[in-house]
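Researcher: I'm preparing a figure for a lab meeting and need a structural model of a single chain. I don't have an experimental structure, so a prediction will have to do for now. The sequence is pasted below. Please return the structure as tokens so I can convert it later.
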Amino acid sequence: IQPIGKAKIVRKGDDATIITYGRHVSMSVVVANLLSEQGLGEVRVIDLCSLYPYDWEAISSAVIETGRILFVNEDTEITNFGEHLLRRVIDEHFYELKARPRLLAAQHVPGVGLAPPLEEATVPQGKDIERELKALLSEET
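Model: Understood. Here is the structure written out token by token.
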């Protein structure tokens, strides 16, 4: 069991980092493995494990080491916790970034309940993570 406030690196990589939590951890690992098999890069996946306190040291180290960051979660794109992390990355690590940091979040729509087609259309899925990660890996500053 991970201590509260400590993130866990669930996949190593040096080309980019996905920072996520919950069900998007396993989706992100699947996509990172797929891109690795395609020769597109080695992507680190970090599971935040807890949102507060969060492990800024793990996030900061990932920015310095990979320079490419993708935050993924299912919060809506408005008032998203990932926005706070993205802003802090920019504030503290702007010159270490190799590409603009990105946030992949759910669309700002009313709750979709348990309707799988609506959830798949509005909440980030593997194909969405793959699209954003490919764009992040190909972006040059």
